[in-house]
Backbone:
DNA sequence: TGCTAATCGAGACGGTACGTCAGGTCTTTAG
DNA sequence: CTAAAGACCTGACGTACCGTCTCGATTAGCA
């Protein structure tokens, strides 16, 4: 039972599957999306999906890779005007807009729930999708640290968690609305703990 | 088509369903648990489940209510030795132990993913399960605030999010290990931003 | 588990069940009639049906008894003008009209299929419903025999089967249309074999 | 929603279903046979049955086609020794043996009750199963007619009904035992009416 | 530039679970 | 104790998808 030869893979079919998945995510709640539905929407045989992807979650994941490659640059970067709080306010407010937009929020939720259930998928996610983003955040904080705006002994990964964790948690668990005021209050308190 | 009369509900059947659900959660990953499986394990007809619960998630939710009522007291409370950081360290370390224990972690993950997908269930969760816990946290912080250990203008809900959000997010997204060191580093930075 | 005491039986409930059954037979094909449907239509508890009847077929049977008692006299009789062929033509044409009328044909079909499947019900049918009718037929033939219109050695039960069997069979198996012409042709040939 | 492509039909599955049906008919009263039971006995998915057959009755019908194709020749024929009464006695006694044998009688009863309830099935039955048999009967009678043993003006279809109808009716309605004596008495009277 | 082997769309297949319906039993409340 | 009501366990219904499989009909890489 040899695994399929990637060289012979039909790129059209691959794109059709991922596009169909993204389309369906706009129309149907993720749990009700089926492999058969994706195949039929993509005009593709079911076997073509089973040949190249291990699970519905794997398709979803690749669809996200495609989406990210589409609108994000390859090496994401946070703005750096020198004013950390202002820059983060900008970034987090933009994030909040995205998280409040069903077109982005629904697919993200789908991926998030798959990550929560599937350890190996979570690993792939953190390596391929989250890592570059996290590195950009870390880089921005490092620059602030080097500029003396953050404490020298601050653990930057903890800092990232403190800044982004509350928002992501509030979003995913629906524990409250995500507003600009919330972002401001969060950043005010969070950053206060990080200054020298 | 009248909805069933709660007065005639068989408490034995209700308990059997919830117990079976909790049992199965120890054995089978939540997505592979089925209504049929619960019914058969509970020695109950499928219709009895469909009569009283709207979905598998609703059963899961009630099972959690039962579980919480079982080992948590009715009005949870955080320890108060006067030393906020020490108390929170204790609490968070205990939380981390729970989150690292599959017996608790797996069911919680199941509920968390359902909350992420189902708005009305999330509402019920926050009202019935999360609210009392959150109130306990708020109460503990308020006492610290009144004792002058926290800034007067601190938004306690934001504070709660900053303290617990990073941990829950890291746990659910599997973005990194949950260790005592992480708890300590998190609390150190988080609380520093909240002091007067 | 004593069987119920017939003396305490509620006649209203009994009639309501049988009437509901007859009503439903006008509206729904017999195989899709359910005990629950009868009970609900009759405004009667399911248990009341299960207490007094052994099966849906038993209810059907009693409904027929009621129906027969209603429009047939207690001791049915065939016309006797002295002209056997004319009398039988009259009777069979009337029978054919009934068998072509869905309002009568459908319930009869229902009973017929139950008889074919359930030996004890068939026995009850022949004893309670068919016997008087058959006796009337036998009586009419006997009179013809005594009047010298039929052979002395003719087995009257065979004669009855030859006269009515083809019609009933054609009706139940739908092997052809039931018309007056068919009745006439049938009677002509059948009776020719029975004359002295 | 196109109907399935017969070219892709799996003959093994088809045979397994029909064989399983015939097997079950030997073991379980027809009304208690279920599609699930057939599927499981045949080692076949339920959907495979629902894909190719419209109802349990349709499966039963095809099983009968198979059975008939098995032991009956393609073009059945009645014996012709020149002595019509002797030939028919032979045939009807054989029929009576079959009708008294549960292995044949039970499935026939099942089909007969379905025919009584389902007009389109009855049509298919008469076209595919009954017609050739009836033609053979008609042919045998025609030859007797041409040999001057039957009246020239005899309607052969009525004659067939008079000969076979009483037996089938007595069998299906269980109105009396089917014995050789009954066959003889029946034939004696019936044929007497048909001679020139 | 054909050969040939893998991929492709299609969809039948053996299964599992779905959510519904009804069967027959049991319990509750009222008369 | 009967009866209406209806919850209960059971099991079958007919449907939807699962993941595997087979079927021609393209391809795409090698010979």
Residues:
């Amino acid at each position: 039972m040899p695994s399929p030869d990637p060289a012979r893979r039909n790129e059209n079919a691959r794109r059709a599957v991922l596009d169909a998945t993204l389309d369906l995510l706009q129309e149907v709640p993720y749990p009700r999306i089926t492999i058969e539905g994706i195949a039929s929407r993509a005009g593709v045989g079911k076997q073509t999906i089973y040949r190249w992807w291990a699970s519905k979650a794997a398709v979803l994941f690749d669809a996200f890779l495609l989406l990210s490659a589409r609108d994000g640059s390859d090496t994401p970067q946070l703005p750096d005007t020198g004013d950390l709080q202002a820059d983060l306010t900008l970034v987090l407010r933009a994030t909040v807009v995205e998280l409040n937009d069903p077109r982005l929020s629904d697919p993200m939720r789908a991926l998030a729930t798959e990550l929560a259930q599937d350890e190996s998928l979570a690993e792939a996610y953190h390596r391929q999708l989250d890592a570059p983003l996290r590195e950009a955040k870390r880089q921005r904080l490092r620059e602030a640290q080097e500029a003396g705006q953050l404490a020298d002994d601050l653990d930057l990964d903890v800092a990232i968690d403190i800044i982004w964790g509350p928002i992501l948690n509030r979003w995913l668990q629906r524990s409250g609305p995500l507003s600009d005021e919330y972002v401001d209050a969060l950043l005010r308190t969070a950053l206060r703990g990080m200054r020298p």
Notes: Residues 4-5, 8-10, 13, 39, 43-48, 51 of chain C lie near DNA strand F (CB under 10 Å from a C1'). The two ends of chain C are 60 Å apart (CA to CA). Chains C and A do not touch (no CB pair under 8 Å). Residues 56 and 114 of chain C are 10 Å apart (CA to CA).
